[in-house]
Amino acid sequence: MGETPGIAVAAVDNDRMALMALRGILPQLLPGARWMWGASGASEAVRMALAPDTRPRLLLVDMSLDDGTGVGVCRRIRRRTDRVLMLAITAFSTDTYATRVAEAGAQGIVSKADVPAMAAALRTVAAGGTYDPAGDSARTGFQTAADAHRRLEDADLDESGNGSGAAGDSGSGGADRPKLGTKETETLRMLAQGLSYEQIAAQWGIAPATVRTHAHRAVDKLGAKSLAHAIAIYLSR
């Protein structure tokens, strides 16, 4: 894989300080790269990544966002194009997201805390390769952008032909499933980040029992078998 001088890089992260840090360290991580933009929200990032005048060649995608998930961002972009390379980044264990983000069409995942690994991941993905922290992309199924785009396109065609719900609904009748409320969505997001009912309740100034109610309603609405299953469905969107 050759050098990638002048490659345009963008990032989505709900922590603006993290975006500033990424922009500042990019020249050391990927020499010759050109910073395009930083977005703090999922919808904004998808819109800018798909627009021809703001489309980067490489997009760094944080896994935990305020208005969605990094997995969802990757899937929405990859369904539409293979022209954007995507590298998932996270402050949590990469194993938490690796398989799901590979299925969503990203080319790799790396920990934000591991700077040498991030440099290696950026250079590998920018040059057209795939990156797995364990050194085995086959372990989680990371594919090139072209292969992942083709796979998701084929899956969408199969599902539309079979009359099933959109990809990412985990095959449980997503089209007919009630939409999650704001608090239900936020509860799943915060639980996915590792917060407890008590910690979420303290942040919101409510009783832990109320947080549990939001979580249980989310499980019911998603048709999930358990809270863990509901979180997995949420993260796959």
Q: How is this structure best described in words?
A:
It holds the Pfam family GerE. Keywords: DNA-binding, Phosphoprotein. GO terms for molecular function: DNA binding. This protein has eleven helices and seven strands. It has 237 residues and is of the alpha/beta class. Helix 8 crosses helix 10, helix 8 crosses helix 11 and helix 10 crosses helix 11. The longest helix is centred in the middle third of the chain and has 18 residues.
Summarize this structure as a short list of keywords or feature phrases.
237 residues; alpha/beta; Rossmann fold; Arc Repressor Mutant, subunit A; 5-stranded parallel β-sheet; two-stranded antiparallel sheet; globular
Portion of residues in beta strands equals 5-15%
Poorly predicted tracts of residues:
163-176
Structural class estimated from helices and strands: alpha/beta
CATH hierarchy class name of the largest domain: Alpha Beta
**Average pLDDT reading:** 86
Basic shape: globular
Distance between the termini: 32 Å
At CATH level 2, the architecture of the largest domain is 3-Layer(aba) Sandwich
Topology:
Blueprint: E1 8-12, H1 16-29, E2 34-39, H2 42-50, E3 58-62, E4 64-65, E5 68-69, H3 70-80, E6 85-90, H4 98-103, E7 108-111, H5 115-126, H6 137-140, H7 145-162, H8 182-192, H9 197-204, H10 208-222, H11 227-235
Kindly summarize this structure in a few lines.
This protein has 237 residues and is an alpha/beta fold. Helices cover 49% and strands 13% of the residues. It has a five-stranded parallel sheet, sandwiched between helices.
